[in-house]
Amino acid sequence: MAEGDPGVFTATALPGDPRLLPTVTSAFLGTRVFRDILHAAGVYSGAAGDTHRADVPSPLGLRMAAPGAHSPAESFTLNTWTGTFSHTICSPGYTATQQLYAHHSLVHLMASSITIRRLDGSTHPVTVQLRSSFVPQSQDLGLTPGPDFQGAHYIYGQTLVPEVEGGPRPTVHMLWTPAPQSLTLGGEERERCWEFLTAVAGSEEEAKRSYSAGLSLAAAGSLHRSHVRAWAALRRGCSVQLDGPLALRQALHGCLYYLLSAVPPRDSPGELFHGISPGGLSNGTRGEDYWGHVFWDQDTWMFPNILLLYPEAARAILQYRVRTLEGARRNAQEQGYQGAKFPWESAATGREVCPEEIYGAQEIHVTGDVLMAFEQYYYTTQDQKLFREDGGWELVEAVAQYWCSRMVWSEEEQLYHIRGVMPPDEYHSQVDNSAYTNAVARRSLNFAADLARDLLLPVPEEWEDRARKIKMPFDEERKYHPEYDGYSPGEPVKQADVVLLGFPLMHPMSAEVRRNDLEMYEPVTDPAGPAMTWSMFAVGWLELKELQRAQSQLEKCFSNITEPFKVWVENSDGSGAVNFLTGMGGFLQVILFGFTGFRITRSSLLFDPAFPDDITKLKVSSVSYLGNKLEVTITREEIRMEVTETSQDPPASPLEAVLESGQRFPLWEGQSVSFPTAPGWIQRSPS
């Protein structure tokens, strides 16, 4: 790897705060390097607001140490191209290297290998010590030892407390290679590799199958290679490359590494997906990262990037919401409403698990945020099967019913109101007509009506009637959107709220109003607020071609990125969630939607590129749209597009690019077209 590779992060010392160590994660297992616990997806313990990711003891927290008094040279590397963390000790006469990874295609398997290599002609034994604080017990699981299997130790047990009374208590089965206290390279050996495997699954059979598969790959010397191959294929399929400052490219590759670690591999249709929490699967023990609960962070902040690059994984995220629909129906019923109300914090069942009642009761925009993800998915893929056969329509209908029942008619204004809410700006509560909440409710109702027509289902009249007549707070004099009824200009705001009307909601407004909203809220938004906020101001300024202002907002994100492994923190003072995927999702949206101007509409994918001054080129290798994969390369002068792949089942729609000037360019597979950089859109070819 060349010096300055933006996808490889190396350090000679670890950060002082262990929370800032990198994570190694698959769709099913996650841990932080050198930590003595790991987590398995969907395995929570604790009732209601106490439910948290169950700590599974991790045998992988091994740490090498060289015996003797001298301190050898050490290095620590996270390689985002191979999805592998490594620790190397360089001593006179030998090197010892430990690699740690969550296997990308065998999602129930994590592995650590240690290689000692002699560098000189000596013949004395070389010993490396292994430190570990692993104890096969857990505060969250009742663990019982079972018989050894193919050289592995075995424990299994259930979580102690179900999320809802009488609800399921998942079982965890774990097999692991026992680690000695030291490893020795014999006097006659030049090099030797030891493999330590850990398999974790919900059944004994799956744990054994994964462990055996790992053993046979290890015996053939190809365990790590098989992981790297699967991971590299994912990275290639989701490749985003920038010509610009090194720090920006490093941030980009860091975000792609951590976010893509959280999604299911391409060949795992049988595996249930359990959603993505703000700090991912490695975090979420009790008292950390919101206990591993799933918020709108998944649907609003992470999802759009995954949808554009990898729609199969986006579908798995939506299926998590479909699976928790019954819990969402119960939430609505308990609050006296119809339909389904998605919880502010979701775990295994979809019941509200937020420990503080106010958020579950008032921060109801999350239900519209969930539906917005379904809408973007549908318009990008036209996958009707999700809605007709796999439960999607029932969810859409239930959300529309919820919004209708949550509104009240104001005789005085002759408009529908949604009262008593907390907007995304959590410094305010019990407000009426939050601009964001009402806009997202309107969007839910319009989508439900559009989808019903596409599926040839009757459209309840009240859906469109209420969408038309819901109040949208607007100040005619100042020409901006007040955050809620009675908001006065200058009042402090916690995070991006009204600015989200422009993107992602694409609420209709003039450029003047869009600018006024940005100008009004930028100076009053709390500088200590969460990391994703600045990315949405950046997208707004890019839309208005205010490149300098966009850049200064984007630069604010960097105070949330820690060294040396580019792990994000929620707040710039280091507080809040760590490995903050929400902030990374916002940052990626600046690149994938802000720099490109991509906007998903009912009938097209709009583009209108705008780069800050220090970026010269952006290449997204695989934009997915209507069954086509497009390679899109943008410079200030030129846009180049090529369809590189088309799906067969269902067959992809032929596409064309249309410029606002009226020029049309058919997009045939394998043929590259280019045109001067200008606004336009990609749509189904009418021919």
Question: Could you provide a short overview of the structure?
Answer:
The chain is α+β, with helices and mostly antiparallel strands and 687 residues long. It is built from 16 helices and 30 strands.
Task: Describe this structure as you would to a colleague.
- This protein is an alpha+beta fold.
- Helix content is 30%, strand content 24%.
- The strands form 7 sheets. It has a 9-stranded antiparallel β-sheet, covered by helices on one side. The protein has a 5-stranded antiparallel β-sheet with strand order 19-24-25-26-29. Strands 22-23-30-27-28 form a 5-stranded antiparallel β-sheet.
- Helix 4 crosses helix 16 and helix 11 runs antiparallel to helix 12 (461-469).
- The longest helix is centred in the middle third of the chain and has 20 residues, at 435-454.
- The mean pLDDT is 96.
What is the CATH first-level class name of the domain at 8-239? Mainly Beta
Indicate the radius of gyration in whole angstroms.
26 Å
Instruction: Give the neighbour order of strands across the main sheet.
Output: 1-9-10-11-12-18-16-15-14
* SS field, number of helical segments: 16
According to CATH, the homologous superfamily of the domain at 8-239 is Glycoside hydrolase, family 65, N-terminal domain
Shape: globular
Largest sheet: 9 strands, antiparallel
Determine the N-to-C terminus distance.
47 Å
Mean pLDDT: 96
Oligomer: single chain
How many beta-strand runs? Answer: 30
Protein name: Protein-glucosylgalactosylhydroxylysine glucosidase
GO molecular function: protein-glucosylgalactosylhydroxylysine glucosidase activity
Family: Belongs to the glycosyl hydrolase 65 family.
Enzyme class: hydrolase
